[in-house]
Design goal:
343 residues; single chain; 16% strand; 3-stranded antiparallel sheet; Aspartate Aminotransferase, domain 2; alpha/beta; Aspartate Aminotransferase, domain 1; 2 domains; 7-stranded mixed sheet
Length: 343
Amino acid sequence: MTTRIDLRSDTITRPSREMRKAMARAEVGDDVYAEDPTVNELQKKAAQITGKKDALFVSSGSMGNLIPLMILAGRGKEVLTHKNSHIIHYELSSCAAIAGVTPIQVEGERGILTPKNLESHLRDESAYDMPRVGLIEIENSHNKEGGTCYTKDQLKDLQDFAKKNRIPIHMDGARLFNASLASNTPVKKICSYVDSLTFCLSKGLGAPAGSMLCGDTPFINEARRVRKMLGGGMRQVGILAAAGIYGLENNITRLIEDHENAKKLAMVISETSWGHIDLDTVETNIIYFDTPGRKAPEIVDALGKKGIIVGAMGPRQIRMVTSLAVRNEEIDEACKIIRELKL
């Protein structure tokens, strides 16, 4: 079998030949001294794109999410976040283990938090023996809820609630550009509703590593110190920053192809006897579907034998993610294999 179509994640992308050329040409310096010109260019570009005053290149989205927990929330505080958020499930309890922040798991339909969801979790400030809510953390698009996105109205409602209660908002925007394209909302508009945000360079944008942390200048100045504390002070890292610049300049609008390919896959899955999916839930490049009457690992194995690599996300749930690593013709081939798979 020669077919191998990897739909596990958009993290599997590899830098293109053109991106590698940009990396090879990158002018570098010592970034701990803020002397790497390519990193500085990337940070300036990220701030401009998001409409924030400043930005910081960090090694990963997990680091980018941890830093605001340390600065904006702080030890002994609580962070209100969706029960299926990335910081709860996929960041090794770093919010508690390192930041000293307690994550409060909040309900929210399809990963979307609303003031109604959050209201009951606020603390009585007159009670000195209770922890305070230090931060609201949202995810846009929401990975574990199937790539769902906030609308402008939902973000505005959250911002109004947060301001009223003097609580900052951090957005895990690992797939920010997917959310922007899917919701038809400019990136700057989305980012205007939050105090800080991260976005990932190494997923749909195709860079080999790195994320951006964006916010106002005092926050980013402190974030630079905390990054160093966490071991993230890197030196001639302009080689990686050049990949990020290339991704921002060349790979944003093509994310629409990933969304279209996800819808193709979802449609075919909905027609099988072994997969169940609500087509209205497919907004971006992430698909979650149930396997009623079948064990997900069995279907993962059957697809794997046909050359489609996916992951079980539970005993009866499977995830597929489209990306620039999977060409349109490979998606067509995957649809053919799924349509013909008999279980």
